[in-house]
Amino acid sequence: MLSIYQIILLITICHTVYSATYFGLPKRQTDCSNGTCVDYCDIGIKKIKLLPNSYFDNGCSRMWCNEDFSTYIESCGKSSLDQCTIILNDHKLPYPDCCNKICVTFWNLN
């Protein structure tokens, strides 16, 4: 029988065709600075205190804190269009609408 981590890994591998993902093992932190102790996920990227079963949009990515304090980060995958040399994200839009929105074309002058 597959564990929950193996199932999540399989889902992540299947999902990476369309996006870039990261799954982190549980890393529970406790903050008692305001007199009441609160458990949260340590994402390791910023000092963001995500409570279990919540998410935070950061630029063109989304970070989740799962019930078991594991983390899941999803961002835009690579995309290609024939007429575009590179495709950029539009950071003015929220995730996932920001993904692969700006087509940049470099003309060959030869």
UniProtKB/TrEMBL annotation:
<keyword id="KW-0964">Secreted</keyword>
<dbReference type="Pfam" id="PF15430">
    <property type="entry name" value="SVWC"/>
</dbReference>
<dbReference type="InterPro" id="IPR029277">
    <property type="entry name" value="SVWC_dom"/>
</dbReference>
<keyword id="KW-0732">Signal</keyword>
<feature type="domain" description="Single">
    <location>
        <begin position="41"/>
        <end position="103"/>
    </location>
</feature>
<dbReference type="GO" id="GO:0005576">
    <property type="term" value="C:extracellular region"/>
</dbReference>
<protein>
    <recommendedName>
        <fullName>Single domain-containing protein</fullName>
    </recommendedName>
</protein>
<feature type="signal peptide">
    <location>
        <begin position="1"/>
        <end position="19"/>
    </location>
</feature>
